[in-house]
Structure formats: C-alpha cells, structure tokens
TrEMBL record:
Name of the molecule in the record: ABC transporter substrate-binding protein
Keyword presence, ATP-binding: no
InterPro entries registered for this protein in UniProt: BCAA_transport (IPR051010), Leu-bd (IPR028081), Leu_Ile_Val-bd (IPR000709), Peripla_BP_I (IPR028082)
Residues covered by the Leucine-binding protein domain: 26-361
Keyword Transcription regulation: no
Source organism per UniProt: Vibrio sp. HB236076
Leader sequence segment: 1-22
Amino acid sequence: MKGFFTAFKVLILFFLSFAVQASDNTIKIGAIFAKTGEAAEENMVLFQAVRFAVDEVNQLGGIHGRAIELLEYDNHSNAIQSLQAAQRAVADGVLAVIGASWSTHSLAIAPYLQKMQTPMISPDSTNPRLTAIGDYIFRACVSDTWQGKLLSKFAWSQLQGQTAIILQNTNSDYSIGLSEQFALDFASMGGEIKAIINYKSDLNNLDDILSKVSASSPDILFIPGYGESGKIVKSAQNAGIKSKVLGGDTWSYKEFFVHGGQDLHEGYYSSHWNKSLTDTKSVDFVERYGKFYQITDYVAGGYDAAWILFEAMKRAKKIERQVIRDELANTRDFDGVTGRISFDSQGDAIKGMLIIKITDGKTQVLSKIDPSY
C-alpha cells in the first residue's frame, strides 16, 4: 500500500509539473482599458472583443502551438494609472499590449512601452502624436490627421458649410487633436472658423457656450468629444440652434446616445465600422460575436487589433518582442472586420472610414470613404 501511495504521489507531481510547463509555454499579451471610471462602460466591450479573439485563436491551435494568455489591466480611466498598468504588464512578462482606447490613456503608456521595446496596438486612439512616439507603437485605426481631413471635406462639400464653430474638450487629447486638424483643413478649403470654444468634461459653462454659438449662427457645429457631446447636441437642439452638428468617431460610443444623442433630429459623424454593414465579413462577425456579447459599433476595432497582432505573431520566426514588432510593421492588406488594413511607415492604419447620419436618434451609413479620399 505504501508503494501505491508513493507511485500515486509521483504521478500527481508529474501532472502538476506538466501543467506548470504548459502554463509557462503560453504567450502572454496584455489588454489595457478601463474597467472603472468614466471610460469603463465603453471600454469594457473592448476587453470582451479581445477575449473573444483570444478564444478564437486558441481554439485554432494558438500561435505555433502555444496558447495565448490574456492578462487584463484596469487603467481606472486616467493617465497615471494607465502608465502603472503598462508597468505591471511589462513586469508580468507580456510580449505585446492591446490598448488603450482613449488617446489620453494611450499617450500615457506609449513612451514607457516604447522604452521597454514592447509592441503596442491601440484599437481606436486617433491622436496623431501617438505613433510618432516610436516604432513599437501602432494603431488599428486612422489617425486624426486623416480623420480631420475627411470630416472637414465632408462639412465643406457635402454639408455645404461655409462657417464653423468648434467645441473643444480641454480635458481630452483626442478632442484637442481632432479640433486642431479640422480647423486647419476646413480653413484650407476656404471655410471660416468663427471660434474654437473650450469646455471641460463637467460642462459647467454649457449655457455660455450655447449663447455664443447661437449668436454666431455657424453653418457647422463641430463637437469632437465623448459621451458629453450627447448632452451638448441635445441642449443645442433644445436651444433652437440650427447649425448642422458634426462629430468624430467617438460619437459611435453608446454614451453619446445615452446622454442625448438619441434625441438628436439630425447629425453626422465618422465611424470605423457599423453593425448594419452587409458585407460578408461584417455579417459573419455579428452572427458569431452576437452569440456571446452585445454588438456595438466599436467592438470590431478591438477584435481587429487583436487579430492583427496574432497574424504578426504567426509570421514571426521567433516569439520575441522585436520580431513581433517587425512583423506588425509588415502588416499589409489585413482582411479585417472594419476593412482592409495596412500599416504605413509610422504605424498608422491605412484604411477607410464611414460617415454615419443620425435621424431622430437612429443611425444609418451615409457613405463609405476610401483611404484615397
């Protein structure tokens, strides 16, 4: 009997050892988004999108026979804790990071990840300064250099706007960057920027802002903000302001509609994807993803970011940070849910966008914009 228990203990130790080896053989990646704070609701769906992609790749055999192990980090919706999350991720041995979402958060983590030579790919941070930080920094979306050009051209040629006022959230690097680019491009086409009016996320000066807009009566009211933009457009509409309202890709977030966008009679914004698209890739994704999670218009960006990373890892001769970085840089014609994606020399995605029209709170795809636009 004693010999039996000894043999049994040896067998248990063998299987425990095997399990540890299997765990040690995983490829660790990090996801840095918000689980708490003001960005949490919209960021949680990005965690879900990355989890879904990780489950898929592991079901297909992983990368070179090794499973992907996803480590999730809550940045608590602020820049300081975004950096702390990146530091924990590197200490935990991740080989790449997916995130962050808000440009302010991504700008906080990118310098550290560049210094530590850890590849980073953001699904939807559009501030132009992000990828300029270094060659380990990528984004699976266009930058505001292109988005600003797209929106200003749309405002000028399609909405036939001659004058514009921009409302700029000074708490947001995203809002500041897109405001600056729109102003530059709109003016270059002959448009007049009547004013750039600053506000903060708490909107404590909203009545004053609306008074200035009403007095100037611009053709276009451009509001590149997050959820607070919904409150602004609803308040502007209630105040009788007749300007055509225009926003950036963050208007696709649920929070924009919850805070007032659902009551908007007419408005326009840019988007990376829309769940109503009828192409085969989108329809298939909606069917598969919808069995597990709620579909929103920005989950596809998180999913694509993860699969761009996985495809780069598949091409890599060695699963090492620098080799993964090199293969990310070599991404060409990735067939994503949000469209065909290539990276330019700076790590920005070369891809198209959508213009979405809001009519009485309902959205529809107005046009698909090619990268050459």
